[in-house]
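Pasting as-is:
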Amino acid sequence: LTGCMNLRTGPQPQDANALSASKAAPTNTNLEEAIQSDIANWRLSSPKGNNAAEKLATLKKQNPSNSDIANIESQIAQRYIQLANKTLAKQKAPNQTTLNKALSFINKARTITPTSSLLDKKEKQINELISINTQKQQLLKAKAKAKKKKLAEQQKRKVQLALEAEKAKQTAMENELISS
């Protein structure tokens, strides 16, 4: 009967342990495939527990010398740049809120790949747009202030002219009374 132990069809005790170990720590290939799936489905850093960034961190811990890590980081950065571009493209002249949202995508990508030249370039572009937007806002405020001041001066001039006309009318009436 002890020989019959090898004829058992279910998982052997050592097989069950090996099976649970493989579920706990996915292979690098499976992890890379899961990361690629997350990138393709725009799960870059959310939802928590099921995104490319967390799986990339796991891959880095399991195999820090993996040659694909830099490529994966670049892919995630490129996706965030695409998100920033889509955000900016929604408006002909992006407002401050839109620019901040685009910049937030770049900042999220920086947590994954802080030294990316692609991110540097895009961040510079967005910061230039923010600067232009700020200057536009300041110009609009200055124009509004100048217009308000001009209207106040015009109103003051109208009042002054009305007072002068009233004074001239009064003087004319007084002169008429004196001559009669």
